[in-house]
Write a structure and sequence with these properties.
The protein is of the alpha+beta class. It contains 20 helices and 21 strands.
């Protein structure tokens, strides 16, 4: 017993990544609160995966081999796991014991492996658990084709550890290779070099030579086909979806070229998009070389492709220069939103991008109202000690971060911020960045000690202060002003058929509906629906807003289509507000529970976790 206790104490001590620090040390090296690994001391270099996908057991099993450097000659190598079964471990080819700590909320279990000073390789044989958050297993009936099963992963922020024993932190980068065995007839894809079609063996090989963090590890397996857009871009989708997706994403090649013109070369080789089945909980996930995208952006008119611009922009902000910890998440998403809108402005014009800025500002206002204008969670620099990293994935990082950069642009001028961002992305390529490191870089390279500029921007108020600063920029609204006029005419009694709505995009319709009184009267709901067929719209953004209004107004003619919508959509952006609205009255809450009971299995585990709290409160 004494040996066990001493060994346990040794393991725990060796796996402490940084310990307590004073503020000066905090600035020098960001402390990642969401990894139990000791990857700040033992430096992982390359992962070699050899795994098999079992659709019958809903399990991935195989081996993960890590190559590493151990400059401090530590006796223990520690990795993150969550729900994994560890079968055996070797170090430099010899079998070694291991320990798996008790699970910690939001973090999982630390895997500790004894190593010698000369060891450079550990190999772990393992299986995934039955509740791996990263994995969504779809039965054939849950796919578009209805013939083959489907699997995809969602590793951000801390779920890579549920399918790979890994140092799972955004500031920890490594290269990887993989051998993945799947049922014959299915295609396997990863965030790496990918095949273009199914092979005869069901064994696929992958290689990613640019270092990436674990949250960008991605795997998808299913009946998918590929269609090129141009020499370096293309789309994967289920065969019945492929032509629609290809049409929708026809401008993606131009997007890549536009992005390069703004902030430098695209460094990942190809840029492909995989359209996933409907259960995908996000709009998109920026896995390198292969963006995962929701089918809800397939509107038939290319009106929702700003989401692809967003995921593409991550190829610079997030994937190329990565937030050191999840408390620095705004350096990922805020920069990406700003970059996305610059891409859309270059491609579609300033008045189009201005609509995106205004809708984003509305989202920011709603988030601040929800969290509380004085909430610590409305700072850009987050405080997530003892909390789930998911708590920080709000529109504060996205929209407050983007509006901060817009404020910088308006203060220093577009030419200067573009020069700065070009240097930032390319000078820090494949590196990580904490908030404190960024602010020093920002001062040295852009502000250059100019206290007048700093005072105009009020940097500390944006980064280390709550709410929306009163110098937050608001963009001109040429197109939304016309929408506001149309809404006012309608509310004053003008027939909807006389309104000037020809040529409206999804954004104009969304703004038109968002600013309606809530609840809107039933006669007005009926008028709008009779004229614009909103209940039957195939545009998911407009449909979701219309269904929220229908629930609030008690407009029952929309409920059957809403039920169908909820059976086909898994995106949390839509599910959360719609189910929340239904839970506001007893009658609608009963409807929500019935609908959720039917379709819960269609939703990703992340969406289930969010919705369980809403439905069962």
């Amino acid at each position: 017993m004494r040996y066990v206790l001493l060994a346990g104490a040794l393991f725990a001590a060796a796996c402490q990544t940084t310990g307590d620090r004073n503020p000066a040390e905090e600035n020098a090296q960001a402390k990642d609160l969401h990894t139990l690994s000791n990857a700040d001391s033992i430096l992982v270099r390359r992962l070699a995966l050899d795994i098999a996908v079992d659709f019958t057991a809903h399990r991935i099993d195989g081996a993960a081999e890590w190559r590493f450097d151990n400059p401090g000659e530590l006796p223990i190598f520690c990795l993150d796991t969550d729900g994994l079964t560890i079968d055996s471990v070797t170090a430099n080819g010899r079998k070694v014991p291991h320990t798996l700590d008790s699970a910690i909320a939001f973090l999982g279990s630390r895997l500790s492996i004894p190593v010698k000073k000369t060891d450079t390789i550990v190999r772990i044989w393992y299986k995934t658990g039955s509740h791996a958050t990263a994995l969504q297993w779809l039965e054939p009936a849950q796919t578009l084709g209805k013939k083959q099963p489907f699997l995809y992963t969602q590793s951000e922020p801390t779920y890579a550890r549920t399918w790979i024993p890994a140092p799972d932190g955004p500031g920890i980068r490594f290269t990887y290779t993989a051998r993945v065995t799947v049922p014959k007839g299915l295609v396997a894809l990863m965030s790496a070099e990918n095949p273009r079609m199914a092979n005869d063996s069901g064994v696929y090989h992958f290689r990613m030579d640019q270092p990436v963090p674990a949250y960008l590890m991605a795997l998808a397996v299913g009946d998918v086909a590929y269609k090129a857009i141009d020499g370096r871009t293309g789309v994967y989708a289920e065969p019945d979806m492929l032509d629609k997706a290809h049409y929708e994403f026809a401008e993606v090649g131009k997007m890549v070229t536009t992005a390069e013109g703004l902030y430098g070369p695209y460094r990942w080789g190809v840029y492909d998009v995989l359209v996933l089945p409907p259960g995908f909980p996000l709009g998109g996930m920026e896995n390198p070389r292969l963006t995962f995208a929701t089918p809800t952006i397939i509107a038939g008119d290319r009106s929702l492709v700003s989401l692809i611009a967003h995921e593409l922009a991550h190829s610079w902000s997030g994937n190329l220069v990565t937030n050191a910890t999840w408390e620095d998440f705004w350096l990922n998403e805020g920069f990406t939103v700003y970059f996305e809108r610059r891409i859309m402005e270059a491609m579609m014009g300033a008045d189009y991008a201005d609509m995106l800025w205004e809708l984003g500002y509305q989202d920011l206002e709603e988030t601040v109202t929800s969290l509380g204008k004085d909430s610590r969670d409305t700072w850009l620099k987050l405080a997530l000690k003892g909390r789930d990293a998911e708590d920080g994935l709000t529109d504060i990082a996205y929209e407050k971060g983007a509006h901060f950069l817009r404020r910088v642009e308006e203060t220093v001028g577009r030419q200067k911020i573009d020069t700065f961002l070009y240097q930032y992305f390319n000078g820090n390529a494949f590196k990580t960045m904490s908030t404190e490191q960024f602010l020093r870089y920002f001062n040295e390279e852009l502000l250059k000690g100019d206290t007048t500029l700093e005072a105009k921007i009020r940097v500390k108020e944006w980064v280390y202060g709550p709410g929306i600063p009163d110098n937050c920029p608001r963009v001109p609204q040429t197109r939304f002003t016309k929408v506001d006029t149309a809404r006012e005419k309608f509310l004053k009694g003008e027939a909807p058929g006389t309104l000037e709505t020809a040529g409206w995009t999804s954004h104009e319709w969304l703004h038109f509906l968002r600013k309606m009184p809530k609840p809107l009267g039933l006669p007005q709901m009926e008028q709008l629906d009779a004229t614009f067929k909103l209940t039957a719209t195939g545009n998911s953004e407009v449909a979701n807003q219309w269904f929220i209004m229908s629930v609030a107004a008690g407009y029952k003619p929309a409920f059957a289509n809403m039920d169908k919508f909820l059976s086909q959509v898994g995106r949390r952006k839509f599910l959360t507000p719609l189910y929340t609205e239904m839970m506001k009255s007893d009658e609608n809450a009963a409807m929500a529970r019935t609908i959720y009971g039917k379709y819960r299995g269609n939703y990703h585990p992340l969406a289930q976790e969010t919705l369980d709290k809403i439905i069962n409160k």
